[in-house]
């Protein structure tokens, strides 16, 4: 069902990105997945880089959406079947923003909206959206997730 939803939205999940450091992309404990921060990587390359400001809000939103797609790719790799997802519990969104920028929630909204659209009620989650001075590989955004699943 979730795979069909992805297909109807024209989303083809990429191979999940490999970690950029000394950590694992997903930890499974009990019925929770803790998904490490995902940046906007496509085919091994960071697509959206640099500081976010009012001038490039649209681009930053695309970056956040790509982070969400990479989160879903990590879920798929770990669970095998996205229909096992019972709840997106929480997202934490980091925005590589200039000091005067204060629209971090608006940047992360497309990631949240995509999860709502794909998973329906199961996609509704709590969230944090914060501005930071820099992110790995000069990425515009980074988002991690906590996801509940059932076998």
Task: Describe the overall structure.
This protein is α+β, with helices and mostly antiparallel strands and about 150 residues long. It has a single domain, classed as 60s Ribosomal Protein L30, Chain: A (2-Layer Sandwich). About 30% of the residues lie in helices and about 30% in strands. The strands form two sheets. It has a five-stranded mixed β-sheet with strand order 1-2-7-5-6. Strands 3-4 form a two-stranded antiparallel sheet. Strand 1 and strand 2 form a beta hairpin. Helix 2 packs parallel to helix 3. About 35% of the residues are buried. InterPro entries: Endoribo_LPSP/chorism_mut-like (IPR013813), RutC-like_sf (IPR035959). This is Endoribonuclease L-PSP/chorismate mutase-like domain-containing protein.
SSE sequence, one letter per element: HEEEEHEHEE
What is the assembly state of the chains in this entry?
A: single chain
Here the CATH topology equals 60s Ribosomal Protein L30, Chain: A
- The percent range for strand residues is 25-35%
Mean pLDDT: 97
Determine the structural class based on helices, strands and strand pairing: alpha+beta
CATH architectural name: 2-Layer Sandwich
Using the CA coordinates, give the radius of gyration. Answer: 14 Å
Q: How many domains would you count in the coordinates?
A: 1
Using the alpha-carbon principal axes, give the shape.
globular
Largest sheet: 5 strands, mixed
- Can you give the helix content as a percent range? 25-40%
